[in-house]
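Exercise 7.
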Amino acid sequence: MQKIKCILSYDGTGFSGFQIQPGKRTVQGELEKALAKIHKGQHIRIQASGRTDTGVHAIGQTIHFESPYTLPVYNWGRALNTLMPADLYITGVQKVPDAFHVRYDAIEKEYRYVVWNERETDVFKRNYAYQFRYPLDIAAIKEACTYFEGTHDFTTFSSAKATIKGSKERTLYEVTCKQSGQEITFTFQGSGFLYNMVRIIVGVLLDVGRGKRKPSDITALMEKKDRRLVGETVPPQGLYLWNVKYEEY
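Solution. The predicted structure, written as tokens, is:
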């Protein structure tokens, strides 16, 4: 039995999220369909580092699966990509130890969120960035980013629909905002993330950029642990699962 880890990228526009759902096109569904073809109809279940929602993209999502076949590592990538749709691609393949788990062994994840800060609509960016039409104070946003770094309880910045049990404490190692022309990229590197956490934080940072909140308000919002205190979750199409890190083995 071989355990294989794959790194994959996908355009989330045409998927109803990562997790398999009856009657819907999902990333997991496409991968398991391809694996079933390779294994002559045998169902091979995949495990992922985490799920992404409808419309969310990935540059470096990771999965693993176990196979009774012992193909050379390179051949796994080639065989799978032959069966992949145009919006899903395996960018790396690695054989991993039996004890490895793609979700539980992840030590750091990086998400990026792209905002197109322009009044006029750009139809070519509509699936890959959130168009935000209002002027923004980038210096204030950068100051606000620093309040999110470190270990905090992120209840206020987690979806009220989240089913997670236990602590909502997470550690963010770095939160940054960079502007290049009209494109603004938020980068979040952390030990783990709650459901919709990045998209809720970005919404609050945009409020800071518009002068609706002060950067120092972030601390009080965290302390109150109340999702109702912050605004709507920003749309999914600006979000990218950028990278998942593991210890060397």
